[in-house]
Write a structure and sequence with these properties.
The complex is a heterodimer.
Chain A (H helix, E strand, L loop, with lengths): L10 H12 L8 H8 L27 E12 L4 E12 L15 E10 L4 E9 L5 E4 L4 E4 L2 E5 L7 E6 L3 E8 L5 E2 L5 E3 L7 E18 L2 E16 L7 E11 L4 E9 L7 E7 L5 E5 L7 E11 L2 E11 L4 E7 L5 E3 L3 E11 L3 E7 L3
Antiparallel strand pairs in A: 1-2, 1-13, 2-3, 3-4, 5-6, 6-7, 7-8, 8-9, 9-12, 10-12, 11-12, 12-13, 14-15, 14-23, 15-16, 16-17, 18-19, 19-20, 20-22, 21-22, 22-23
Helix pairs in contact in A: 1-2
Chain B lengths: L14 H18 L1 H34 L10 E5 L5 E2 H9 L5 E10 L5 E7 L1 H14 L16 H5 L4 E5 H7 L3 E4 L2 E8 L8 E5 H7 L5 E2 L1 E4 L7 H8 L3 E5 L4 H49 L4 H46 L10 H28 L11 H29 L3 H33 L4 H51 L4 E3 L6 H10 L3 E14 L2 E8 L1 H7 L2 E4 L3 H6 L3 E5 H6 L7 E2 L9 E7 L7 E5 L1 H6 L8 E6 L3 H12 L6 E3 H44 L1 H9 L4 H43 L9 H27 L3 H9 L1
Helix pairs in contact in B: 1-2, 1-10, 2-9, 2-10, 2-11, 2-21, 9-10, 9-11, 9-13, 9-14, 9-21, 10-11, 10-21, 12-13, 13-14, 13-23, 14-21, 14-23, 14-24, 21-24, 22-25, 23-24
The chains are: A mainly beta, B alpha+beta.
Protein name (chain A): Carotenoid 1,2-hydratase
Organism (chain A): Shewanella algidipiscicola
InterPro entries (chain A): AttH-like_dom_sf, AttH_dom
C-alpha cells in the first residue's frame, strides 16, 4: 500500500516526466496518473483467480510496473515511550523490456527506499535510490534479502521471517529482529485486491499484521532498546489508481482484542460518494473478513476530525472510523502531527493511537494532499 | 558650435543653480555637436567592454574550477582514485555503498574517436546515483543556485540505464555537431542535447553501463566521488582502501587554479591594455570638447557663474558620460565574454583538462568598472579642468600660445617616460617573478606612448630640415602643429601597435621553437598507446616484424612533487639520450643519469620551483628519498611539470613494468603498419599516432592557446583604430577654417586634399616607425621575461615583418578614412561656412 501525491522537484519528477515521454500526450500535471495508470503496454496485468505462491512471491516481480515491501512498527522504548518506525523498499520498472546490454550495470528496474522513525517530538525521514544491480539493490531468494545499499532486510531462510532489518543513515539507524508465527493474510479475493468501484484497477496484495519486534533504534546519536509489533504489506501491480483517483488514506490498526484491521479509502476527484473503501478484519490464526464499498456501500464511514498543515500539504491527521458490521467505532489520533515525509514523493506517514470501541495502536498513511 | 545660450546677464546665482544652468548649457552644446559626446562615450564603451568581457571570461573560468560538480550532480567532497597502474575496480564502489557511504558516485572516463576522427572526452557515471545526490542536495539546500537544479525534461532515463547507445551532449555542441548520431567504435550512438546549464562542457555524458563497454574498461572505474564529508571515517576508509586505491579530499579547484594562473593573468593584462587604449580615446574626446567650449566657459564665467559651479558641472557631465558608457560597455562586455568563452573553454580544456561552466556575471562588476573608469577619467581630465579654470577671464580663446605650452608638456612627458622605463628595466633585472615582471611591463607600456609626442616633434623637425620650401615646407611646419591635438590618439595607436607587434613576434617565435623542439623530440615514426592488457602482445608482434628497426618504450604516471601534480616519466636509454633537448646539465650527465644517480626535470617545473642543477626534489610515488637534479630539459606546451628518471630508478620503485606507450622506427609503409596493428589488436586510431600527426596536433593545440590572446590583441588594435579615426575626424573638422583660408589664398581643392591627407598619413607613418623598435622591445620582454617566468618556456625570438606591415596598413587605412570623410563633406558645402566656423 502506499505512495504518491504531488511530486517535488527531484529524481522522481524526472521519472514521472520520463514516463510521460513514452506517451507524448500525457501531461506532467497528470504525472501520478501516468505512473499509476495510462501506459501499461508491455507490463503484466493483475488478473483475478491467480494463486499467490510463497516463497516465490516474496521476491521482486520485474514484469509488473511497481511493487513494494512495506513495514510499519509500533514500538515502545525501554523507558516506556512510544516510537513509530517505517521501512519501505519500492521497485519501479522504467520500461517493460529487460535490458539487452551485457553490462552488469544495465537494467530496466529502479529501486527507492524510505525509512522513518517517529517519536512524539521527532520525525526523521530518509530516502535512498539505486538501480537494480545485484550488489546495489534488489531482492535475493536464498536466503531471502531485500536490499538497497546498506539498508537490508535479511532473512534466515527463503521465507520473509525470521529476519533482521538493518537501516543506517547519518541521522537515524536501527537494527530489528522480526519474527512471527501467524500465517500471511491475503487481501481482497485471495490476494487480488481491487482498488476501484468498477474493478478496473487492482493489485496483488498480502500482509503480515502480526510481527514481534525487538531491537535497537538510534536517532540523532541517541540509542534506545525497543520492542513491540510490526506489520508488513507486500503489493505489486502495473496500475494502481485510475485517472479519477487522487490519493488514499490507509490504516493498519492493531486492536486490543488481538485482531487487526486493514482499511483504506481511495479518494475520487469528483465527490465523496464515489470514494472506494476496502477493509479486512484479521486474526492471528489466519482468518479474516473483507468489507468493501462494492458489497456494502454504507458499511464503512470515515470522517476527518483534525487537520495539520505541513510544508508539503494539509493532511487530515485525526479520524473517526465506523464499521457497523464489525461493531467498530474508532477515534484515531497521531503520535506526532508532523509526520510528513519530505522526500522525492511527499506524503504523511506515522504512528497513531486508537480509542473508542477498541483501544490500540497502528499506522496511518495519507497521500494525494 | 559654441554659442552661448543667451546674451542675458545672469548675475551671481547660487552655486547649485549655477551648476544646473551650466549643465543645461553643456547639454545644449552637445546637442549641437553630438560627435563630441559620442567620441567620449565610444572610448568609455570600448574600455569597459573589453575590461568586463575579459573579466567575465576569467572569473567564470576560475569559478568553474572551484564549483565543478560531478555531472548532473553536486560537488564532490572526497575522491577515491586509482593507485598508479592499478585500475580501480567497480567492486570498490559496491562495497563502499554497502558499507553505508551511499552518497557516492562511480565514474569512468576516457577518450573516444568518432568516424570523422574527432576526439571526444567521455564521462560515464552511475546516472541514478548522480541524480539522487543532486536531488538530495537541492532539497537540503532550498537556496541552492538554480545551476544545481535541473529539469530532466528530455533525459531518457530508462534507455540510459538500460545501457542503450545514448549519449548526452551540451546543446551548443550538439548544434555544432548538427547530426542526430555519432558513430564510435562501430556503434551508432543517439545524441541527446541537454541544456548547457548541466555543465557538460565538451564532454559526452553517458551511463556507466554503456561507457565501460565503449571505453573497453569492463569493471573499471576512473574514480569514485563522495558527496558526504567523510573526514571522520577517513582512517577506516584509508585502511580499507590500502593497496587498492587512494582517498583524497577535493581541493576545490586549487590545483587547477595554480595551473592556469599565468594564462588568466595574461588575459587580464591584455584587457587592462585595451582599457587604457579605450580611456585614451575618451580622454581625447574630453580634451577636444573642452577645447571647443573654452570660449563658452569664459563667457559663462563672465556671466557670473562661479568656477565651482562650472567645475562641478564638468565633473557631473563626465560622470554622466561614464555611467552611460559603462552601462553600454558592460552589456557589450558580457556579450564579448559570451563570444570569447567557447574559445577560452576549448583552450583550457585542451591544455589543462579543465571544464568551464556556462557564464556568470555580477552587477558589482558594472559598479567597479564604472568607478574605475570614472576615477581614471577624472584623474586624466583633472589637469584639463584646472587649466581651463586658470585661464584669465580677459583672455579670449586664443590658441596661439598653445604651442609653447605643448612643447613644455611634451618634454615633461618625455622625462616621465624615461623615468618609468628606467624603473621598469632595473626592476626586471632584479625579479624572477612573473607577476612583478608583468607589472613592470605595464610601466614600459605606459612609458612608450608618453615619449611619442616628443619623438614625433623631433622626427618632423628632421624632415623639415630636408624638405623643400614653399607649400610643402608650410605643410610640414603645420604638421608640427598637429602633434598636440593628435598626440593622444597617436599614443593610443602606438600602444596598440606595439602590443600587437610584440604579441605577433611572441606567437611566431613560439611556433618556430615548438616545431624545432618537436623535430628533435620525436625520433620514431609511429607512437602507440595500447591498453595495458595488450601491451605485451603488441611488443611481441612488433618485434617479429622485420621492417621494424627499433622499439622504444615509455613509462609514465601522474604523481605529485612540490605539492603540485606532475608526470613522472621514464624512457628507454636510447630515447632518453637522443630525444631530450637539454637546457643545462651536469658533467657526465648520461653516465650518472642512466645509473639512477640523477634525474632530469622539465624547464617549466624547474623555473616554477626555482630548481637548479644539483638541487634535490621528492616525488610522491618514489617515496621519501631525495632525487638530485642532473639536467633541465626544454618542454613546451605541457602545463604539468615533468620529471624523467632512468629505467633503473623506475623499476627499483616497483612501478609498473608495462610501458604506457611504445615508439617504433619503421622502414616500410607506415600506413600499412598502423592498419595492421589496428586490425590485429582492434586498436582505435586514437591510440596510434604517426610523427606527423603528433606534430600537427601539437601545433594546432598551441595555436588554440594563443588564439584568445590574438583575438584580444586585434580588438585592442580595433579600439585604437576607432580612436585614431575619431581624433582625425574631429581634428580635420576643426581645421576647416584654416583650410578654407588657404583656399581663398589660391590653393586648389585637390592640392588641399592632398596636403591634409598627407599630413595625417605622415603622422601615422611616423608613429608606425616608432612602433617598430618599441614593439620589438616589448616582444623581447614578453618572450624572455614574461613567458619564460610564467610558463617556463625558453623561446628564441623571431621577427615577423609581414605582421608588422599588416598592422601598419590597418592604421593607415583607418586614418585615411578619417581624413577623407570630413574633407569630402567640406567640398560639399560653401567655403564661407567653413570660414565662419572659425569666427563663431
Amino acid at each position: 500500500m502506499t505512495l504518491l501525491s504531488s511530486p517535488r522537484a527531484g529524481l522522481f519528477t524526472l521519472l514521472l516526466l520520463l514516463l510521460g515521454c513514452d506517451a507524448p500526450d500525457t501531461k506532467p500535471q497528470s504525472a501520478m496518473g501516468s505512473l499509476m495508470g495510462d501506459n501499461l503496454q508491455g507490463y503484466t496485468q493483475v488478473t483475478p483467480g491467480q494463486t499467490l505462491r510463497f516463497p516465490e512471491d516474496h521476491q521482486a516481480h520485474n514484469d509488473f510496473r511497481q511493487e513494494w515491501w512495506y513495514l510499519t512498527a509500533n514500538l515502545t522504548t525501554a523507558s516506556g515511550q512510544p516510537l513509530g518506525l517505517q521501512w519501505t523498499q519500492f521497485r519501479i520498472a522504467l520500461s517493460p523490456k529487460t535490458s539487452e546490454s551485457s553490462s552488469v550495470w544495465a537494467t530496466n528496474q529502479l529501486y527507492m527506499a524510505h525509512s522513518a522513525v517517529t517519536t512524539a517530538q521527532q520525525h526523521v525521514a530518509k530516502e535512498r535510490w539505486a538501480r537494480a544491480q545485484p550488489q546495489l539493490a534488489g531482492s535475493d531468494a536464498a536466503p531471502l534479502a531485500i536490499k538497497l545499499d546498506n539498508w537490508l532486510w535479511q532473512s534466515q531462510s527463503q521465507d520473509l521471517f525470521p529476519a533482521t532489518l538493518t537501516v543506517s543513515d547519518e541521522q537515524l539507524s536501527y537494527r530489528l529482529a522480526l519474527n512471527t508465527s501467524a500465517p500471511y493474510q491475503l487481501q481482497g479475493d485471495k490476494g487480488y485486491s481491487i482498488k476501484s468501484g468498477d474493478g478496473s484497477v487492482a493489485s496483488y496484495y498480502y500482509s503480515q499484521p502480526f510481527i514481534q519486534v525487538t531491537g535497537e533504534v538510534t536517532l540523532e546519536g541517541k540509542s534506545v532498546n525497543v520492542s513491540g509489533d510490526a506489520w508488513l504489506d507486500r503489493e505489486w501491480s502495473s496500475q494502481f489508481l485510475n485517472k479519477h483517483q487522487q490519493g488514499w488514506d490507509w490504516f493498519a490498526l492493531r486492536l486490543d482484542d488481538g485482531s487487526a484491521l486493514m482499511l483504506f479509502q481511495l479518494r475520487s476527484d469528483d465527490n465523496q460518494a464515489s470514494h472506494f473503501y476496502s477493509a479486512r478484519r484479521m486474526y492471528a490464526d489466519g482468518s479474516g473478513r473483507n468489507i468493501d464499498s462494492t458489497s456494502a456501500p454504507t458499511d464503512i464511514k470515515m470522517t476527518p476530525t483534525d487537520w495539520q498543515q505541513t510544508p508539503s500539504g494539509r493532511y487530515p491527521v485525526g479520524w473517526r472510523i465506523a464499521i457497523a458490521s464489525e461493531q467498530l467505532q474508532l477515534t484515531i489520533k497521531p503520535l506526532n502531527r508532523d509526520s510528513h515525509m519530505p522526500l522525492s514523493v511527499s506524503y504523511w506517514e506515522g504512528p497513531i493511537s486508537i480509542s473508542g470501541s477498541h483501544q490500540g495502536t497502528g499506522y496511518m498513511e495519507l497521500t494525494g494532499y | 558650435m559654441n554659442n552661448p545660450p543667451s546674451g542675458r546677464h545672469i548675475g551671481n546665482p547660487h552655486p547649485l543653480k549655477g551648476w544646473q544652468l551650466t549643465l543645461r548649457v553643456f547639454l545644449a552644446h552637445y546637442r549641437q555637436s553630438p560627435l563630441q559626446a559620442g567620441a567620449i562615450i565610444i572610448g568609455i564603451i570600448l574600455a569597459v567592454t573589453l575590461l568586463t568581457g575579459v573579466r567575465a571570461t576569467n572569473e567564470n573560468a576560475i569559478n568553474s574550477y572551484s564549483n565543478a560538480t560531478e555531472l548532473l550532480s553536486q560537488q564532490a567532497k572526497w575522491f577515491i582514485t586509482p593507485l598508479p597502474n592499478t585500475p580501480l575496480n567497480e567492486q570498490l564502489y559496491f562495497t563502499l555503498r554497502q558499507q553505508g557511504i551511499t552518497h557516492s558516485l562511480a565514474v569512468v572516463q576516457g577518450m573516444l574517436v568518432d568516424e570523422q576522427a574527432r576526439r571526444w572526452q567521455v564521462q560515464g557515471s552511475d546516472i541514478i546515483a548522480a541524480m539522487s545526490a543532486a536531488s538530495s542536495h537541492s532539497s537540503n539546500d532550498e537556496n541552492a543556485s538554480s545551476r544545481h537544479r535541473f529539469n530532466g525534461d528530455a533525459l531518457p532515463l530508462a534507455k540510459l540505464i538500460a545501457g542503450e547507445p545514448i549519449v548526452l551532449m551540451s546543446q551548443s555542441n550538439a548544434k555544432q555537431l548538427n547530426q542526430p548520431t555519432l558513430t564510435v567504435e562501430g556503434q551508432t550512438l543517439n545524441v541527446i542535447a541537454v541544456d548547457d546549464q548541466l555543465n557538460l562542457g565538451n564532454r559526452l555524458l553517458m551511463d556507466i553501463s554503456l561507457a565501460q563497454q565503449l571505453l573497453n574498461k569492463p569493471q573499471q572505474l576512473s574514480y569514485i566521488a563522495i558527496f558526504n564529508d567523510v573526514s571522520a571515517q577517513k582512517v577506516q576508509i584509508e585502511q580499507w582502501l590500502e593497496n587498492k586505491a587512494h582517498l583524497s579530499p577535493s581541493d576545490n579547484g586549487d590545483s587547477m587554479k595554480a595551473l592556469t594562473n599565468s594564462f588568466h593573468l595574461n588575459l587580464t593584462a591584455m584587457s587592462l591594455l585595451a582599457f587604457i587604449v579605450g580611456l585614451f580615446i575618451a580622454y581625447n574626446g574630453v580634451r577636444y570638447s573642452l577645447l571647443k567650449r573654452k570660449r563658452l566657459i569664459t563667457q559663462l564665467q563672465q556671466q557670473g557663474i562661479m568656477k565651482l559651479s562650472i567645475m562641478s558641472a564638468l565633473a557631473s557631465e563626465l560622470l554622466l558620460l561614464v555611467v552611460v558608457g559603462s552601462l553600454i560597455g558592460f552589456i557589450g562586455g558580457l556579450q564579448l565574454s559570451y563570444w570569447l568563452q567557447p574559445m577560452v573553454s576549448v583552450t583550457l580544456e585542451q591544455l589543462y583538462g579543465a571544464t568551464i561552466l556556462p557564464g556568470i556575471w555580477q552587477w558589482q562588476w558594472l559598479a567597479q568598472a564604472t568607478l574605475l573608469t570614472f576615477i581614471a577619467a577624472l584623474l586624466a581630465c583633472s589637469s584639463l579642468f584646472i587649466e581651463l579654470l586658470r585661464q584669465p577671464l580677459a583672455q579670449s580663446a586664443g590658441q596661439f600660445n598653445q604651442q609653447a605650452s605643448a612643447h613644455r608638456a611634451h618634454k615633461r612627458q618625455l622625462w616621465v617616460s624615461l623615468c618609468l622605463a628606467a624603473v621598469a628595466l632595473i626592476g626586471m633585472a632584479l625579479t624572477d617573478h612573473y607577476r612583478i615582471t608583468m607589472a613592470l611591463l605595464g610601466l614600459v607600456v605606459l612609458s612608450i606612448p608618453l615619449a611619442l609626442p616628443w619623438l614625433l616633434q623631433q622626427l618632423i623637425q628632421v624632415i623639415e630640415r630636408v624638405a623643400p620650401k614653399g607649400l610643402v615646407g608650410y605643410q610640414i611646419a603645420e604638421t608640427k602643429e598637429l602633434i598636440p591635438p593628435l598626440s593622444l590618439a597617436m599614443m593610443a595607436m602606438l600602444l596598440a601597435l606595439t602590443a600587437n607587434i610584440s604579441m605577433n613576434s611572441l606567437v611566431g617565435s613560439f611556433e618556430l621553437t615548438l616545431k624545432q623542439w618537436l623535430n628533435a623530440r620525436l625520433h620514431a615514426d609511429l607512437y602507440i598507446r595500447p591498453p595495458s592488457s595488450q601491451m605485451q602482445q603488441i611488443e611481441a608482434y612488433l618485434a617479429a616484424d622485420k621492417q621494424v628497426t627499433g622499439i622504444y618504450q615509455q613509462w609514465s604516471i601522474k604523481s605529485r612533487a612540490k605539492q603540485q601534480p606532475i608526470y613522472l616519466v621514464a624512457r628507454d636509454d636510447y630515447s632518453v639520450e637522443h630525444t631530450t633537448v637539454l637546457k643545462t646539465a651536469v658533467d657526465n650527465l648520461w653516465q650518472r643519469f642512466l645509473t639512477g644517480d640523477v634525474v632530469m626535470v622539465s624547464e617549466p617545473f624547474a623555473i616554477k620551483h626555482q630548481l637548479g642543477l644539483n638541487d634535490t626534489i621528492k616525488v610522491d610515488v618514489l617515496g621519501d628519498s631525495p632525487l638530485t637534479v642532473g639536467a633541465i630539459y626544454y618542454d613546451y606546451g605541457n602545463p604539468y611539470g615533468e620529471v624523467i628518471v632512468s629505467t633503473v630508478t623506475w623499476h627499483q620503485a616497483k612501478l609498473s613494468t608495462l610501458p604506457i606507450s611504445l615508439a617504433v622506427t619503421y622502414q616500410g609503409d607506415l600506413t600499412q603498419l598502423s592498419q595492421g596493428l589496428m586490425q590485429k589488436f582492434s586498436l582505435s586510431d586514437a591510440l596510434i599516432y604517426s610523427q606527423a600527426r603528433i606534430k600537427a596536433q601539437a601545433v594546432e593545440m598551441f595555436k588554440r592557446t594563443f588564439s584568445i590572446t590574438k583575438v584580444l590583441n586585434s580588438l585592442t588594435l580595433l579600439v585604437a583604430a576607432i580612436g585614431l579615426f575619431s581624433a582625425c575626424y574631429m581634428l580635420t573638422q576643426a581645421r576647416m577654417a584654416p583650410i578654407a583660408r588657404l583656399y581663398t589664398l589660391g590653393v586648389n581643392r585637390r592640392q588641399l586634399s592632398l596636403m591634409v591627407t598627407s599630413q595625417m598619413l605622415l603622422m601615422v607613418i611616423l608613429t608606425c616607425i616608432v612602433a617598430l623598435p618599441t614593439g620589438a622591445l616589448l616582444g623581447y620582454l614578453l618572450i624572455n621575461k614574461v613567458t619564460l617566468q610564467a610558463f617556463g618556456w625558453s623561446i628564441a625570438m623571431i621577427w615577423d615583418w609581414q605582421a608588422y606591415f599588416e598592422v601598419t596598413l590597418l592604421a593607415l587605412v583607418a586614418s585615411g578614412f578619417a581624413v577623407a570623410l570630413p574633407l569630402y563633406q567640406q567640398t560639399r558645402r560653401p567655403l564661407i561656412s567653413s570660414l565662419q566656423s572659425d569666427v563663431l
